[in-house]
Amino acid sequence: MNIAVAQSGGPTAAINSSLAGVIAEAMKISQVEHIYGAKNGIAGVMNDEFCDLRALVARPYGMVTLRQTPSSALGSCRIKLTEEDYPKIIANLVKRNIGAFFYIGGNDSMDTVSKLHDYVVSKGINIRFVGIPKTIDNDLPETDHTPGFGSAAKYLAATVKEIIADSNVYYVNSVTIIEVMGRDAGWLTASTSILRETCGGMPHLIYLPERPFDVQTFLKDVANLHESGIRAVIVAVSEGLKDADGEYVAADNQSGKADVFGHKYLAGLGKFLEAQVSDKLVCKVRSIELNVMQRCASHIASMTDLDEAAEVAAAGVRAAVTEGYSGVMMSIVRVSDAPYKVEYLPVDVKCVANHVRHFPAEWINTQGNGINEQARGYFMPLIQGEPNVLFEDGVPVHFKVDETDYMRDNGGD
Question: Among residues 137, 139, 221, 307, which one is catalytic?
Answer without folding.
Answer: 137
